[in-house]
Structures are given as C-alpha cells and as structure tokens.
Amino acid sequence: MKISSLLILAIGFIISSSFTTIADQTLRADKTKSFLSYSANHSLHAWTGTSKKVDCLLIYDEETKTFKKVAVSTNVADFDSNNSSRDGHALEVLDAIKYPKVTFGSTAIEPAKDGKLKISGKLNFHGKVKDITFEADYKLTDKEINVSGGFPVSMTEFDVERPSFMLIKTDDILEIKFNIVFLKN
User: Fold this and answer.
1) Residue (of 141, 155, 140, 147) closest to 177 by Cα position
2) CA–CA distance from 169 to each of 41, 162, 165 (Å)?
3) The model's pTM
4) First to last CA, the chain
5) From CA 52, how far away is CA 18, in angstroms rounded?
6) Taking phi first (over 0 means left), then psi (-120 to 50 degrees means alpha), and beta for anything else, what does residue 112 get?
C-alpha cells in the first residue's frame, strides 16, 4: 500500500473528524473484494479496465446505520484491461506521470429511494476537479457493508483527448463502475 494514498485519505479524515460522533466508525475497504472499473467504447470494439488496488475509507455510524463520508483513491496505472499495449497508451493519454491518481471525496451522502444512497462529492481526474452526484446500492450484514454503483465520466470535460483507432475516436463517455466492500470493526 502506498504511503501517499493513505496520507491523502488520512488528512481528509482528520479534517472531517470534527463532524463525527462516538458511534462513528472509520472502515477500510477490503481490497480482495473491492474494485473500480471503467468501460470505454470504440465503433470497432469495447473494453473494460479494472483496478483492484482501491484505497477507500468510510465513516459510518453503526447505531443509526448512517453513511457519513467516503474517500476513494486509486492509481491510474493500476487499471488493467488485459491488453498491455492499450493500457500503456491509456497512461500516455491520461498523463499518468503528471496526474497519477484518480480520487473522490464525498460532500454529502443521503438515503435515496428504494434503499439506495445518493452520493455527492468531488471527482479529481486528470488534474481537474468536478462535482458529481450518483446513486449507489448498499447491503449491510453483521460483518460487512457492500456499496456498488456507477456513473458516467466525460473525457472532454476533464480535458482528456479521446484516443483514436483507424482515425476514429473513442466515445467521449467512460462508464465507471465500483463495488467496495468494507469490513466492520
């Protein structure tokens, strides 16, 4: 586990600790069960890249079953599409040396219809920070919390030049999906 990822997450949680109560727990994602992926599409083929090296912390109130805050971070280089040439090109397109991480920090988590969560926050991707809101499903058990969902990301909104193949550019939208499993204390 990289110290820089943990440091970024820890600083965010230290700052927000004044908003927590005694019942709040800070839970860490189980990397053996969690993932973050993107799906991209070109007129000739589609593909998905997946990272299983997701650093994620959740502040959760066990008494009220309330989600308080979440912070997520992963390295751009940790996404694997099962094609090393495509992954290498993605690192070039995404300026991975200059912008090595993708991060998200929540600003609000609210219950939504049908047992879902409405999550708002800031997505930091390719050096740009944008406000996003999406819904996520969750399941609670005695031992873990499973949160899953997805949302679209426009490459052009984040100043990413869309890759092309045979002079045809990929679609602008990346479909992001996630499944994060938190182990309860």
Assistant:
1) 147
2) 9, 6, 6
3) 0.83
4) 20
5) 31
6) beta
